[in-house]
Amino acid sequence: MAGMQKPDVILFDVNETLSDLAPMSRHLEGVGAPGDLARAWFAATLRDGIALAAAGAAAPFADIAAGTLRGLLATVELPGGLDAAVEEVLDGFAGLDVHPDVPEGVRALADAGVPLATLSNGATSVAEGLLGRAGILDRFERLLSVEAAGIWKPAPGAYRYGLEQCEVEAGRAMLVAVHPWDIDGASRAGLRTGWLNRDGAPWPGYFRTPDVEVATLPALADEF
Questions:
Q1: For residues 75-108, b (16+ Cβ closer than 10 Å) or e, as one string?
Q2: What is the CATH number of the domain that holds 79?
Q3: How confident is the model over 54-74, as pLDDT tens digits?
Q4: CATH number of the domain that residue 211 is part of
Q5: Ramachandran quadrant class, 32 (left: phi over 0; alpha: psi -120 to 50; beta: rest)
Q6: Bridge partners of 118?
Q7: Pair (57, 86) in one structural domain
Q8: What tens digit of pLDDT does each residue of 1-59 get?
Q9: Which of 49, 74, 94 is the last residue of a domain?
Q10: How far is CA 51 from CA 22, 160, 214, in A?
């Protein structure tokens, strides 16, 4: 569908959409824990943050991430102890790099004249470090966190916050994410959506269909 209308802004999810979580297995192994806990930990963090949002409440991503990590590691024998392990793993999360396709895709979108911003359930400091290490921080006009909105995505208020900060109507904005639940939430809030499907997974039919699906970020730039 090349030639589709450019949005006035693209709002990027950050964790796992831009950041590559694969090294988290290595960080867990480094503290003496099974590496395959990484996916369970991230999923549990999202689960609890979204559960709070469903109840109309919120907590910082870092607090939830630390709490779920403590729960998963509580029964694991850790050479350096639980506190040190949690700190080291969270430091590793804060120091992740982007997926290989991200720098080229971000530059292509920015060069095409599409304003870019982030809208993360995590802290803006994490996004700033991630994009800075990748050399693409200057391509983003705003780094936004739902911490300022008081509620996590996919609650409608999180997307409204992003739209208000960017001073754009919902139909003129696009949310790009790897998570179908984020795509669905943005669509229900009136945004256009782009699903970054790096793994070639089937779309969950119970969610609203994305406006565009791409396998890499550079491919999204080709759509405009």
A1: eeebeeeeeebbebbeebbbebebbebbbebbbb
A2: 1.10.150
A3: 999 999 999 999 999 999 999
A4: 3.40.50.1000
A5: left
A6: 12, 143
A7: yes
A8: 456 789 999 999 999 999 999 999 999 999 999 999 999 999 999 999 999 999 999 99
A9: 94
A10: 25, 19, 29
Question: Measured between alpha carbons, how far is 196 from 183 in angstroms, rounded to an integer?
Answer: 10
Asked if residue 115 is part of any domain, the answer here is yes
Q: What is the CB neighbour count within 10 angstroms for residue 61?
A: 23
Quick one: how far is CA 77 from the chain centroid?
A: 31
Joined together, the tokens standing for residue 156 give 């409608």
Regarding beta strands 212-214 and 192-196, do their DSSP bridges make them parallel or antiparallel, or are they unpaired?
A: parallel
Q: Give how many domains the chain has, as a whole number.
A: 2
The answer to whether residue 170 sits within a structural domain is yes
4 is a domain residue = no
| Separation between Cα atoms, residue 149 and residue 56, nearest integer Å | 12
Single residue among 79, 94, 109 that ends a domain in this structure: 94
Q: Which domain covers residue 159, as residue numbers?
A: 9-20+97-221
Name the token pair of 155: 């609650």
Determine, yes or no, domain membership for 3: no
Terminal Cα distance for the chain, rounded: 8
pLDDT at 3: 67
Q: Helices (DSSP H) in the chain: which residue ranges?
A: 24-30, 37-54, 61-73, 82-94, 102-111, 124-134, 156-166, 180-188, 217-221
Asked if residue 106 and residue 72 are part of one domain, the reply reads no
Q: Are 220 and 197 in contact (CB under 8 A)?
A: no
- The Cα–Cα gap between 171 and 21 comes to 31
Q: Which amino acid is at 189?
A: A
